[in-house]
Amino acid sequence: MAERARRAFVCGWPVAHSRSPLIHRYWLAEHDIDGSYDAVAVDPAGFDDFVGGLLEAGWAGGNVTIPHKERAVALAERRDAAAERIGAANTLWFENGRLHAANTDWSGFAANLDQGAPGWREGERAVVLGAGGAARAVIHALQIAGYRHIAIVNRTVERAQALAARFGDGVGVAPLENLGGLLADCDLLVNTTSLGMDGAPGHAFDLDRLGDRTIVTDIVYVPLVTPLLAQAAARGCVTVDGLGMLLHQAVPGFEAWFGVRPQVTDALRALVVADMEKNK
Ligand code: ATR
Question: Whose CA is nearest to atom 7 of ligand 1?
Answer without folding.
Answer: 132
